[in-house]
Batch of 3 targets.
Target 1
Amino acid sequence: SGGSIKCESQSMTGTDSKVVTYRVAGTEQFVKECQAAGGNCKILTEQNYTIPTLSTTAPQLAVSTVRQHPDMTALWVGYDAAAGFMEKALQAASLTPGFAGSFDANALNVDTVRTDGYQKFDEALAPTWIGYGEIDSLNRLFAHQNTVDEGLKAKLLTKSSVPPSGPWGGDINVVPLYLKIWGK
């Protein structure tokens, strides 16, 4: 099967957010599947932080964790707001082994991916699509109709797939599509 996958990651979770709890579960499932397929994937350590500590203790937690595992290949961060603070702290400590990845596609994180910074990928959902999809579901419920799969899919953003400037808002403009559905 072409060799072994090596991924020794540190997981910075922030599980006071339910969506991050789901992301952690998905990552842990991936690692199990990778190992079952013969890959060398493992989570070296998992550190949890809370939203109130994003700019204070969470960045130092990342620094101490990387110091304990300087040969790790990836720093997995539960969401972008934390990743930016952690990256700055790691750079200040001259510690940027491997690469970082996160979720949410915040503008600053997308810029880091675009400029080939420490964060190399960002998993994203199109915010406009989320909003219009939620309104469409509400409209259907108010009209006593069944909701539908809105078609929203996550996208892995890398240097080759982010827009040349600005934040990523999705690959298609869904607004006219929803307006057509609503007869506008």
Target 2
Amino acid sequence: MKAIIIATRNEAGRLLRHLAAVKGSGIFHYRGLLSGQNVALYIARPGIGTKEQLRRFLRLYKYDRVILAGSCASLSARCTYLQTVRVAQAVAPGEKILTLGGRGSRVVSVRHLVSDDATKADLRSATGADILDMETYTAAQIMAEAEFAPLRFAALRIVDDLPGEEKYLNKERRLREITMRKPTGKADMADILRFGLWDYARILLRRRRVAAAIHRAIVAELKSPA
């Protein structure tokens, strides 16, 4: 059994087409076959909503591999839109560097969404990270605990936003705030018209492209040698 951890339903959208919702030991998650392999997927929420909930998910089944996946922001000119970045090191402001093993890039994880280029540049300068996200450091901390350390762990991030996209990111944040207030998690037509049809369509298209890239990266990882 393989475990997949993703922060949001938007990011997991393509994967959820293949999986069924289940609940075990009080943990809501998804199960099914992906690339011919049994997988369990947990939506952890941005920044890993609750560490203990993630630990309980990791105890549900006998996993032989754990894959963390999701979007990220580029802090380096070397990163391109929709590129898959394998994380080799994770750091958080004021914390020690965690090594995940193998070859790859360094990620800096923060607890809040960062959209302005000045803050991103400061994080790049302070940590030497190539990408920015909200989950990898916390997940790596948990996977380093004695109980989970024997499991093979990989963190894959898809580059979603690039330097110079502050305007777009602020609009994306506004749409996220609108949908979070809705019981369905979706904007209605009145919300969309107030927000702007063009901006709404553009954001949805980008989300779908990222979700498709996340799906491809996870399938490729599942096919890689154990």
Target 3
Amino acid sequence: MSSYITERTVFSHFYQFPDFLLRAPVSQTAKLAYMLLYDRARLSQQNDWQDDGRVYLTYPIKNMAAALGKSESTVKDVFNELRSAGLLKSEDGGFSKPNNLFVLIPDSGRISQWLGKAPSISREK
């Protein structure tokens, strides 16, 4: 049963959803994945995970698949979609190590382009 939010309600953990994502030309699954990556990047920032001043994170594909309730191949497609949109970059982490992921925040010019378009609503696979 659901209950109303009251003055004593203790809120559960939540994720930040950057407002530019509402208009980003990516699928809904990619938006959710970006939100998870963004949250992980904030944690990496707090823990000083840096490479040449750039905050990086690792997020195994199977973990992302479990978090999103999607297949690993879907997550690979989503990562490629985020790379193509300029929202994610990955670099080889080294021998037997996961890739370092860099969450990118689009510049104001790119966001302005997105704002001129209707929200992206695509059919999910």
